[in-house]
Known about the structure:
Layout: E1 5-6, E2 9-14, E3 17-22, H1 25-30, H2 41-72, E4 76-82, H3 88-95, E5 118-120, E6 128-132, H4 143-148, E7 155-162, H5 168-179, E8 183-188, H6 201-207, H7 221-226, E9 228-230, H8 241-251, H9 255-264, H10 271-280, H11 282-291, H12 306-319, H13 324-333, H14 339-342, H15 348-351, H16 355-368, H17 380-383, H18 389-423
Helix pairs in contact: 2-11, 8-9, 10-18, 11-12, 11-18, 12-16, 12-18, 16-18
Amino acid sequence: xxMLLKGDGALEFEDGGLCLLQADKxxxxxxxxxxxxxxxxxxxxxxxxxxxxxGGISKLASLVKAERRRVECVTVHVAVTGTPRVxxxxxxxxxMDFKDGTDGAAPTDPTxxxxxxASYRRPGEPCCMFWELPNIExxxxxxxxxxxxxxxxxxxxxxxxSSSRFTREAVxxxxxxxxxxxxxxxxxxxxxxxxxxxxxxxxxxDALHVVTADCFDHLDIEYAISHFFCVSCHDTGRxxxxxxxxxxxxxxxxxxxxxxxxxxxxxxxxxxELKNSLKELIPVSAIYSCIIDPVPVEQLPYQxxxxxxxxxxxxxxTMLGLDYRxxxxxxxxxxxxxxxxxxxxxxxxxxxxxxxxxxxxxxRWTEKNVLVSPSNVKWLPLLKTLPGxxxxxxxxxxxxxSMLEQFMDDAYRIQRKxxxxxxxx
Length: 425
Ligand SMILES: Nc1nc2c(ncn2[C@@H]2O[C@H](COP(=O)(O)OP(=O)(O)O)[C@@H](O)[C@H]2O)c(=O)[nH]1
Ligand SMILES: [Mg+2]
């Protein structure tokens, strides 16, 4: 197994898995946390076993479909607020990867201020909605009445933006949100116009100065500083833009909401978090392939839904940024032709993703007759009940697991190449 270095942190292998040691702000805020996402798979497994006992494979099949729908139907709402002209709309457009003038983008025209919450989502991506809230302003501003006018409970987190010091109103709102248990992120925008010393703690303290004023002293200043990010709303690749989205993703709960946020905003996500989230549900996908529309495959001693597996693996490849479109975009940002990055890809299925290649890879794993990884041993009793037996489920899990791990290695190789190029190595 290979050890790779990531641009902004070290990557090492532990117990056959990957462990990212990140020195960045997200880790500082949240600690390294557990590698397990806890997408309630134990309960999913219980339900599956129950279904097989009650109604055999056909009952399991309808439950597997329903389970996938349940995961896919989760919608996450995120709020963005602040004083006028601080970049709320521009921030949302960058999160959503909207280019100037894209249909559905938030208007950044100075005359256009929202009077009631306005929602934005990426086309074809119903799971994640960012809301621009009305401005925090006015002498009579009251956090209570401001929040009363919103469906505050629906938001998983709040970004409060300011392009200079945070105002007393902003801090009062943050205070109230903290009181009701909401995640709050203090985002200092337009840092591209004022880059010096932005990483210093003093800079954060100064921007959050009002937090320490007597009337707000019950707001945890340590919390505020550790949730303080400096961004340019026009450039997601610089300053703390990705870190603030990654902090939101990491801190969101319940786990299904976190999963939805990671997948919807995969291009800004911490890849290790994203991979761990995808990995949790691999046994569900493996069972799907074994029992829903499986077809005979040459030399394979059981039936499999190769077209479904092909789609799953393609989805993993997209999530980990290995699609041509993503590579091309990253290459352009560093002024290089795309092949400079695509040459770093070593996994066959990342380069040549066809149904035939997927079937061959599945056969390879079946011939190896491997066991599932320790974290998936709990699935064995269910896998034994599949029409193709334990071998079918275990081999499919290993196929999907190994694709995800290998794509992850490819993603880090590309990240390392980008870092080398930027350093001028
Ligand atoms: N240089 C720079 N300009 C920004 C940034 N964020 C927003 N702007 C500009 O500030 C103006 C107001 O932005 P807008 O998003 O409409 O602010 P809103 O009223 O808070 O929604 C626009 O002209 C944006 O292009 C930033 O981070 N850096
Ligand atoms: Mg706006």
